[in-house]
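User: Please fill in residues for this 535-position structure.
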């Protein structure tokens, strides 16, 4: 028996395109002697179609696409494919076995995740029956994603006679996720003694990015094969006496390369799958826009990226020099538009209203909004999408301007803390030195007034990021955060800023999720909120 594992990049709603990918991999699998092709969860529809699943016409189209796919596949190849199914008035997250041009068997996912980025209870009903199929003298049990995170579905498959477990997944990436997958799969292997073939989706879908890294473990929980991370791939798993043979194990990337690849893949797929002509961003000479530019070029190519420097009287000469040097080094289209004349005209128009008032955040934010307006005008004229450059730390505490530096269609660094921004910049320069060293070592500044630095109004980023991670990603209590060693005044300041700025985050563009909890669909707090975190 040879099982082909198809690590596919599916697009939500692209039934024809996703089916064509499955057929392509099926032909490749047949050509190398595979007898079964295993595809990811909801590979036919993409994960997740969200409220498309509430439409009868979409469900009918999925059913037609499934039967059409069965007829296009090689007759001698068994294919297991994930898809939505409406049956007897209920909707299911399903996996069907396609053989000889027909849909022969269907399994319904039993455990529906309803936390983090998942809301499957909104869309699907729970399945309750195991599915075990006969294939080349083997008994193959089929389960879907969350089913393997609890004992019951795998045990039911074993009790129904399975000697191998096939797991279809659309498991999104976050830092450390692959180690979590290993742990739960090893738990199921220890309980049931069954080898596992685990296939995972790959690619970007809105704020989610799927990392692939499909793998095989034998009945002792030893990793015997693993596909690459963050790219489409087809793996062939050979069996001898019921056990998976040793194959190539592609290592999981370390932290910085993994996050960098996740950002690149999620960004590229968002731009390409939505047919944007290219991207543009404000290049300030600072670390965030520099990293954003590097990722954009790596993801799309220099010909699809435009950088615009918009200096004011507060912009340091070294910011101009570094922006020019980086843009030239990467070969992107580069423009400079001075905002001084526009800023002066706005100030003149507002002078009667602002009479007797000192220069403050109103004038600072006005500069950011002028820059946002200029970028959106260029976007409208030439069709590229504006990429914002703010990071998670700034997003958390509101160190950003509505309709200014938040204006755009995609926030690439939305889930990347400031400290991680620096780590990624240093990592990227290890590949080739594209970010000027001065950008990395100089104190960060929004440059909206003379001599400004971020730490004029924010705690040190190491402190801010530590408190933010504890509060946002881990839901630590007041006492638990203080026990980490942070000063009470810093904890109070950061957590209050986070709570106060929920209204801003609701209006921010989406961005790639790389942590266990980002500021997206996996964190939903009320805008009007009187809960006192510190008691």
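Assistant: Residues filled in for all 535 positions:
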């Amino acid at each position: 028996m040879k099982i082909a594992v198809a690590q596919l990049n599916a697009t939500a709603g692209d039934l024809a395109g996703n089916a064509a990918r499955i057929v392509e991999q099926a032909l490749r699998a047949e050509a190398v002697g595979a007898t079964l092709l295993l595809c990811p969860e909801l590979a036919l529809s993409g994960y997740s179609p969200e409220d498309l699943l509430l439409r009868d016409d979409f469900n009918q189209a999925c059913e037609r696409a499934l039967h059409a796919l069965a007829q296009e596949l090689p007759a001698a190849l068994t294919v297991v494919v994930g898809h939505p199914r409406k049956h007897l008035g209920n909707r299911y997250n399903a996996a069907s076995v396609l053989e000889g041009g027909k849909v022969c068997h269907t399994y319904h996912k039993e455990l529906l995740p309803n936390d983090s980025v998942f809301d499957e209870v909104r869309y699907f009903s729970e399945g309750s029956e195991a599915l075990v199929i006969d294939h080349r003298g083997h008994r193959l049990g089929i389960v879907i994603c969350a089913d393997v995170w609890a004992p019951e579905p795998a045990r039911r498959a074993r009790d129904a006679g399975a000697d191998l477990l096939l797991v279809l997944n659309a498991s999104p990436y976050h830092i450390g996720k692959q180690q979590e997958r290993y742990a739960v799969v090893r738990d199921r292997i220890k309980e049931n003694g069954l080898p596992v073939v685990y296939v995972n989706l790959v690619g970007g879908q809105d704020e989610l990015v799927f990392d692939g890294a499909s793998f095989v473990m034998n009945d002792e929980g030893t990793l015997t094969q693993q596909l690459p991370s963050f790219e489409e791939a087809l793996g062939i798993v050979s069996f001898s006496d019921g056990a998976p043979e040793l194959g190539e194990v592609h290592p999981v990337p370390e932290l910085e390369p993994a996050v960098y690849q996740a950002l690149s893949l999620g960004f590229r797929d968002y731009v390409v799958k939505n047919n944007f002509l290219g991207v543009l961003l404000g290049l300030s000479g600072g670390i965030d826009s520099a990293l954003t530019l590097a990722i954009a070029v790596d993801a799309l190519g220099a010909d699809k990226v435009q950088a615009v420097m918009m200096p004011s009287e507060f912009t340091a000469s070294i910011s101009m020099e570094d922006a020019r040097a980086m843009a030239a080094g990467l070969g992107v289209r580069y423009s400079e538009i001075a905002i001084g004349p526009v800023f002066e005209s706005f100030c003149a128009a507002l002078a009667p209203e602002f009479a007797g008032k000192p220069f403050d955040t109103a004038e600072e934010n006005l500069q950011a909004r002028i820059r946002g307006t200029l970028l959106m005008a260029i976007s409208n004229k030439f069709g590229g999408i504006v990429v914002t450059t703010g990071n998670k730390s700034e997003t958390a505490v509101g160190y950003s301007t509505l309709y200014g530096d938040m204006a755009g269609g995609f926030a690439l660094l939305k889930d990347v803390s400031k400290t991680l921004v620096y780590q990624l910049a240093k990592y990227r320069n290890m590949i080739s030195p594209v970010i000027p060293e001065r950008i990395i070592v100089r104190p960060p500044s929004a440059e909206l007034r003379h001599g400004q630095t971020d730490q004029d109004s924010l705690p040190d980023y190491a402190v801010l990021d530590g408190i933010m991670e504890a509060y946002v990603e881990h839901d630590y209590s007041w006492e638990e955060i203080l026990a980490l060693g942070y000063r009470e005044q810093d904890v109070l300041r950061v957590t209050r800023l986070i709570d106060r700025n929920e209204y801003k985050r609701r209006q921010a563009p989406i961005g790639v999720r790389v942590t266990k909890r980002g500021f997206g669909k996996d964190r939903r707090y009320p805008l009007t909120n009187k809960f006192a975190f510190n008691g």
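For context: The longest strand covers residues 78-87.
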